[in-house]
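Researcher: Before we compare anything, I want clean individual predictions. No alignment, no superposition, just each chain on its own. First chain goes here; please echo the sequence and then give the structure tokens.
Model: Echoing the first chain and its structure:
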Amino acid sequence: NTSHPQIGSLTGSPHLSELSINSQGGAVPASVILSPNLSPDTKQASPLVSPLLNDQACPRTDDEEEGRRKRFPTDKAYFIAKEVSTTERTYLKDLEVITSWFQSAVSKEDAMPEALKSLIFSNFEPLHKFHTSFLKETEQRLALWEGRSNAHIRGDYQRIGDVLLKNIQGMKQLAVHLWKHSEALEALETGIRGSR
């Protein structure tokens, strides 16, 4: 006897022998004859699309397996690359807030001296340019990995390390802009105190 606290006993119902429950939770008379191609609610059944329910008479070919692997990568490195791409996209959005919106607002209101604006915003443009390029390269490599190109013919897919190594070297050149960050913050704080 199956019992659920909210709805009471299901199998003890005198109507269950006469009614069945369809997929939407509605009652269907038990006299409805079910064909193999119809669901209990007498609608056309959907085909089985699960890869686990693949018909044994039609085993997958190697080409189908390779296509499936490209569409549904399971490699840990793929998910790491996907995370790098997502993080990079978020970081770029943050940089755009600073380089576009904040810069535009400060310029319109003439809220800070030119020297301070130059100190702050000159450091962000090289960062934005670098990270835009890095994101583009990462997304291109992910597209190869996911089989959205012909790279599998050349064997160029499922690699991300070369992109990361190249860009890590490029990040070293940005260090000078990052070192100016604390100088820019101090100048901004001094400017705020002076305007009070």
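Researcher: Okay. Second chain, same rules.
Model: Second chain and its structure:
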Amino acid sequence: MHGYRENDFYSSEAEKAEFQKKLSQGYVILDKFILHLNNMSKQPLSCDVANDAKIQKMLDLSAALIGFIGEFAPAWSFRRWYLTQLLRQNAPVQVLEQSINREINLLTDTMLKYAKFYATWQHRLLLISQIACKLSASFYESVLAKEFVFIDKILAMDGRNFHCWRHINYLKQMTPNLTFQNKLTYPEYLTYLIKEDFSNFSAWHERALLDAFDTSEEIDMLHEAIYTDPEDSSIWEYYKHILTKYTPLRLLKTWRTGGSGGKSSVYLMFSDYVTRLKIAECDDSAGEYTYECVEGDALKTPSAYSRVWKINGEFKILTQVTIYAETYGKCTDVFYKRLVSTDAITSDNKVTHKFVINVNGVNEKNVVDFDKKIDQTIVISELNFIDQLLKIEPNSMYLHLAKIFILKHSRENCMNQITDCYYKLMQLDTARVNYYKHENSLSQITARLTEVSEHIDISGNYLSGIPYALSVKLFGCQSLNLSNCGLTCSTVDGWHIPLIRTLQILDISSNNLNSLDTLTTSVVLLDVRGNPLNALKSSPIFITEKLAFEFRNPNLKIIVADASNDGWDWAAYAGAEWLCTIANEALCTMTNLSPLLANYLTRLSGTQNLLIRQT
């Protein structure tokens, strides 16, 4: 297995015979453990597990079995059950402390031999978070102090052990005020681990969590690491983090829309996810406000995450408003939040941000910007540093990507340099040519969209979707042309067009879409000509039902499709009740159309065999 042959495991026949002997003994212990466990399950639970001979026998068997199979979860589960029963039966404190110390010693001995067993790390965590914490504070602190000594030993063996780093993150949440853990947060200690191995992604990540550091010193250390191994991805991830570290939550754009009965709505687009929103002051309003969390095409509950929020109210002129946006701060590793349930992990880690904005104005910035400590002098210096390395390593993909990253967020017009880097990457990394085409198109489109207009045409660009950063730029437009962009169903899935709530007309003609299941948007007119839509190739019996599912947007009034180019059965569709053919001369006579929709349909007057749904 994995390239090893059976003979590779043994240096001699004697060693092989010794292993087979231990294996036989281990299976005997396993059989005894299972037999005793089955017998115990048929008998009533002892009222004094600490002095029950059968249970003590099981503890001995489980310890021996763990020595044979360190990741045998049932053995650890039994030992955890035993400790839990001691707590439930109010065993003497001395018995509890001795049992916990014995368990920690067994874990430590096992994990120093086998440091990457999930079962042992899980058992250790549960022992600390659910059992040891129930005893006195002094005993609990002594247990935690031993934990950091143990962690030091594990990291000395392997500084990249991700199990250990996860354990560290959990302990730091459990022990925010204990002084003996400080060694694990000192930059010097992390620097030592990084210099031992520049590929220590975990140490780089932990260093990124430090609240204070000297930017120039960090960059100097990164330069040393980059010179050593410019193809190490962990170094470049931290490099980008340093340049953008303390970027706060920002309000990227506001947009006000009118409503009926004096009511109106204000859309707010943030740079990160917001969990709660509240207006503190408003200089011109009446009545109550309601808040809607907008994500995808659905309006979710205010407790959900969203980067786009909608405020409804009776606003008159509304020039200035003060709002508070709440986000989550640092939190425990998701793995541990799912694994344990303990009061030691508090949910009170939210951060509140205050914004005073002019709602009728436009607040727009890059979604990602440089850290406030990174000035233009540092940007120029880093570009020179990258250019010097490119002279030595002209075919390094990481260097080209780093240059693009810096150029995108600099204040200069660098589109030609960015495009040159992407063309070079297409030559170096042929497996990701389409990705680089997409990113290059996005860069050009974003640079071009300096102002929002009613009609935006970005057709003919290669796009694999509409990311959030671009949807911010597009918010406010009413008609969007995405024709001939190479869109497929896989690229449509997850795009951010639904966040553009001002959009009325969407042209996605001449793409490669065969389904619109994931295209949920609030547009009124949808142009799907030149797409091989499967639903429109169904039999007349199912066409109405399938189309109703595909176009399940209640706001959608008109679907424009070219029947002749897609091989549809024209006679079948003409018979559907809600479908009708519109002759060229009748396009402009459709009733109840806004000028925007009427103008769009007028431009189609020369097209033959249009299939239009009008509701």
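Researcher: What stands out in the second chain?
Model: The mean pLDDT is 76. Additionally, The chain has 22 helices and 15 strands.
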